[in-house]
Amino acid sequence: MRLLVLLLAFTLFVPMSGCVLPPGEEGDPGSQDSSLNVTDSGQTGPVGSIPQSSIISAYELFDLIQGTDEPFIVDTRRQVDFIVNNIRGSINIPLSQLDVGIRELPVDSIVVLVSENEDHAEKCWDYLVKNGWSTANVLVLYGGIDSWTDAGFETENITLDQLLC
Questions:
Q1: Where are the alpha helices (DSSP H) in the chain?
Q2: How many structural domains compose the chain?
Q3: In what order do the strands lie in the sheet with 138-141?
């Protein structure tokens, strides 16, 4: 039931044309009525003041990862949360360390933020945009890590051996 509610929320709030469903899912989000897709960068989305065009679904992130221009996935949650559950290939830059951690990211790169809640996502997005990133290149994963796992995509955890290396 929870998955159905999330899928309905994605359909109503997040543009999903051209998305690829994870293995085993039925339906084609790319065939949805295009009138539901909001792409006006001036229109705010379901995450505070972040423009709708900067909010992506788990399916859209999956498509980005599979594409040629793989994004930098920046998980801004606490390190302990990141260790237990994260998207493969993501890096952990907690919100409290964002000012130092973003120096490693090219300003012209696509950055996808994985945050623990809407307020957290908005703070991270605002910080990056105020520090040189284009609103077109800073994206927020709607629903955070929960939306990723609810959509059926795999996550990984970090072992003690990996932490010590």
A1: 2-13, 58-66, 79-84, 98-101, 118-130, 144-150, 160-164
A2: 1
A3: 55-56, 138-141, 111-114, 72-75, 91-92
Query: pLDDT band for position 104 (50/70/90)?
Result: confident
**Residue 52 to residues 10, 48, 100, 135, 148, Cα–Cα distance (Å):** 12, 10, 27, 11, 18
Count the alpha carbons within 13 Å of 106 in the hemisphere toward its beta carbon.
Answer: 5
Query: Nearest CA to 141 among 108, 106, 116?
Result: 116
What's the average model confidence in pLDDT over 30-56?
Answer: 56
For residue 62, which of 91, 89, 31 has the smallest C-alpha distance?
Answer: 89
Tokens of 69: 């221009």
* Domain carrying residue 27: 2-164
